[in-house]
Amino acid sequence: MSDCVFCRIVRGEIPSxxxxxxxxxxxxxxxxxxxxxxxxxxxxxxxxxxxxxxGEHEAAMGRLMVAVGRIAREQGCADGFRTIVxxxxxxxxxxxxxxxxxxxxxxxxxxxLKR
Length: 115
Ligand code: AMP
Fold this sequence. Notes:
Elements: H1 5-10, E1 18-21, E2 25-29, E3 37-43, H2 58-74, E4 82-84, E5 100-104
Antiparallel strand pairs: 1-2, 2-3, 3-5, 4-5
């Protein structure tokens, strides 16, 4: 069994503030929020990063993407939100279990990248 921190959260071995769960997907509040809404959405299956996805992950990732809008709405993001997937060294990924950040207001978020 994986000792990856997000695998352990999915298995309930590390506490998390769960906001959504289905057969393929688990979502929980980020432990260090950078916006009023900051939720992480992960596939239950361990995948190191977005760069490691393959055809076997289509069902889980399809379910994950479909769940994002619902999770965001339930967290109060009816007027919009931002999604981020940090990948690898250049993307400054910290946790090597693929995860999608949902960031939301109520106020508009700062620009994504400085020009
Ligand atoms: P990144 O890999 O850079 O996309 O970011 C990893 C995110 O995971 C960071 O925003 C952390 O605050 C968050 N994080 C790390 N450990 C936990 C945990 N045990 N529970 C909730 N969020 C976590």
